[in-house]
Design goal:
Low-confidence stretches of chain A: none
Mean pLDDT of chain A: 93
Radius of gyration of chain B: 14 Å
Mean pLDDT of chain B: 91
Strand content of chain A: over 45%
Number of helices of chain A: 0
Oligomer: heterodimer
Radius of gyration of chain A: 13 Å
Structural class of chain B: mainly beta
Number of strands of chain A: 11
Helix content of chain B: under 10%
Low-confidence stretches of chain B: none
Largest sheet of chain B: 7 strands, mixed
Number of helices of chain B: 0
Strand content of chain B: over 45%
Order of helices and strands of chain B: EEEEEEEEEEE
Number of strands of chain B: 11
Largest interface: A-B, 25 and 22 residues
Distance between the termini of chain B: 37 Å
Structural class of chain A: mainly beta
Shape of chain B: globular
Order of helices and strands of chain A: EEEEEEEEEEE
């Protein structure tokens, strides 16, 4: 089946630092989505990408749909304590396939 | 706009017992999904409904799991009998998509039901 490799698995950063994470796949996807999940809650959509090469920003978040359609990255700039959580990438074709997540810790 | 509603939020049962989860999607969303999220993993799709029809249940363990969406709105997911490895968060999501298989429409998730099987 389709699998996503999401890295890194966790990051510990200081408030104000930037952070990058990415997902790669051996399969081509039509859509890349990035979600954030807080403890005890469902994933919340951050950014959706629908075209290869697309670069999209949402506030301090920037994400890109890789030109090969097999990868995507998410950048968070000037991190703040409320950025803490687990970030998931998800690739979409007939269905969404999720990465294993990246746990972000931000030290004030 | 109200989000996806799920109940109960937490459930603790013993193995071999039965359990049911309920989901009410965002109003007007034709597509409804049930996911299983094991601790430390991303969500895994169990079943996808388009209105009241099943379009993908390839990863649903059909010997013990069942789901229905009889009127094309809310849905129930049942496990009978439960096993220890069924301990997970069960997430419901919905999306607007009225046609399939177009590229996946944006999915909105509910808060999930955390199931513990003892």
């Amino acid at each position: 089946g389709q699998q996503l490799n999401q890295s890194p698995q966790s990051m510990f950063i200081q408030e104000g630092e930037d952070v990058s994470m990415n997902c790669t796949s051996s399969s081509i996807f039509n859509t890349w989505l990035w979600y954030k999940q807080d403890p005890g809650e469902g994933p919340v959509l951050l950014i959706a990408l629908y075209k290869a090469g697309e670069l999209t920003s949402n506030g301090r978040l920037t994400a890109q749909f890789g030109i090969t359609r097999k990868d995507s990255f998410l950048n968070i700039s000037a991190s703040i304590p409320s950025d803490v959580g687990i970030y998931f990438c998800a690739g979409g074709a007939e269905k969404l396939v999720f990465g294993k997540g990246m746990k972000l810790t931000v030290n004030p | 706009e109200a989000g996806v509603a799920q109940s109960p939020r937490y459930k603790i049962i013993e193995k071999r017992q039965s359990v049911a989860f309920w989901c009410n999607p965002i109003s007007g969303h034709a597509t409804l999904y049930w996911y299983q999220q094991i601790l430390g993993q991303g969500p895994k799709l169990l079943i996808q409904f388009q209105n009241n029809g099943v379009v993908d249940d390839s990863q649903l363990p059909k010997d013990r799991f069942s789901a229905e969406r009889l009127k094309g709105v809310d849905s129930t997911l049942k496990i009978q009998p439960a096993k220890l490895e069924d301990s997970a968060v069960y997430l419901c999501a919905s999306s607007l998509a009225a046609t399939w298989p177009d590229s996946p429409d944006t999915q909105y998730f509910g808060p999930g039901t955390r199931l513990t099987v003892l």
